Amino acid sequence: MPEERPLRADARRNRARVLAVAIDTFAAEGMSVPVHEIARRAGVGTGTVSRHFPTKEALYEAIVRERVGQIVGDGRALLEHGDPAEGFFAFFRLMAEQGAADRGLAEGLAGVGFDMEAAAARGGYDVTGVWRELLARAQRAGAVRGDVEVADVKALLSGCVARERSGPEPAARERMIAIVRGGLRPAAPA
Amino acid sequence: MPEERPLRADARRNRARVLAVAIDTFAAEGMSVPVHEIARRAGVGTGTVSRHFPTKEALYEAIVRERVGQIVGDGRALLEHGDPAEGFFAFFRLMAEQGAADRGLAEGLAGVGFDMEAAAARGGYDVTGVWRELLARAQRAGAVRGDVEVADVKALLSGCVARERSGPEPAARERMIAIVRGGLRPAAPA
DNA sequence: GAAAATACGGGACGCCCATCCCGCTTGTCC
DNA sequence: GGACAAGCGGGATGGGCGTCCCGTATTTTC
User: Fold this and answer.
1) Mean pLDDT, range B13-39, rounded to an integer
2) pTM of the predicted model, to two decimals?
3) Nucleotide nearest to A18 (CA to C1')
């Protein structure tokens, strides 16, 4: 393992600025913003961006680490929630909120552009794993239909996020979550 | 209105061939397939494609007319279905099936790439209108929550379609539809 | 069957974008 | 404060794609 020398002070500053600008920009306008534009807004040359992040995907991955790491942490914490159903749906709501506020994340959730899941995995964050545990726990508690799979939950989530593509609508979000919640409830025995 | 002379026989053949190839290709591989590739597979030059369809969007629009026109027709027919709820959910299932079988359509439903809705409208097909009537009818019959909007239904549909992004899974599709159906049911009075 | 109209093929063009490179500047260390 | 490494800017490069053009081929018309 090659030991890394510390970055020069200006390099560290620039790297941080680029990352911050990229987070804001991708959140506001999605992943299709050109790298040149990120550089321009950060007030650096394109070379500076690509030295710190050799490819656009590397930049995306750095963001995912920063952004999804937090979310996954929150999800793990919700595994300790007293009520398994509340924990599960709190995570669902959390993701829906984040997706509504962050267009880049919404695209990742919808599977457009880069593969968020894979980038998160490379960063050591297992989003699917959190979902699996949260879901299994809610199912064990009888709060969610037993035949539901993680992929189903993700698809429903992407539907909720899609609802707010053209702008945040908290009321619609709550309605969507309520619909999903109702649909996921185990069928009442006849 | 400039009166149109009939196309030359070979031109008519080529146009039809391009359209057929485009339908198949976009269905199998999505809208990001280059126009050159469509031309190659149809065995014509790129010029031939762009003469019949001046832009890629025009090609897309011609497909939408062919494809969505049929769907909208089916939807209108379902407005006559004896059971409003059955009509509504039959249309939902129909769209989900089509989306699972046609990647281009799935992208249109998800709002990726071209604007299907707008292309359909230019062609005289009002997809949203059909949804609105089907939904209103189901709501009047008390089969669907009264607070649900057409945009909600479309988002839920895009979620169902997203579930099968990586390949058709009829069982998952039925489960997704069941979840949506359950979630859309009016809350039972306490 | 010849002239005129129409359509064809596919290369050329222009645009956009990610990535790479190199002459110059700035920070670091002695 | 001077020398050297590290970093910077932004133009150059390369590839992909949609669209346009024009010399050639085919069909239509008389």
Assistant:
1) 97
2) 0.94
3) D8
Question: Does B134 lie in the same domain as B45?
Answer: no
Subset of residues 7-26 in chain A with CB less than 7 angstroms from any atom in strand D: 7-8, 10-11, 14-15
pLDDT per residue over B93-115, tens digit each? 999 999 999 999 999 999 888 89
For every residue of A114-172, DSSP letters joined together read S-HHHHHHHTT--HHHHHHHHHHHHHHTTSS-TT--HHHHHHHHHHHHHHTTTS--HHH
Q: Are residues B82 and B38 in the same domain?
A: no
- Last residue within a domain, chosen from A37, A54, A71: A54
Indicate if CB(A50) is under 7 A from strand D.
Answer: yes
Give the model confidence (pLDDT) of A158-186 as tens digits. Answer: 999 999 999 999 999 999 999 999 999 99
Q: Are residues A68 and A160 in the same domain?
A: yes
Q: Residue A189 falls within a domain, yes or no?
A: no
User: Nearest residue to C16, CA vs C1'?
Assistant: A34
Q: Which domain holds residue B29?
A: 1-54
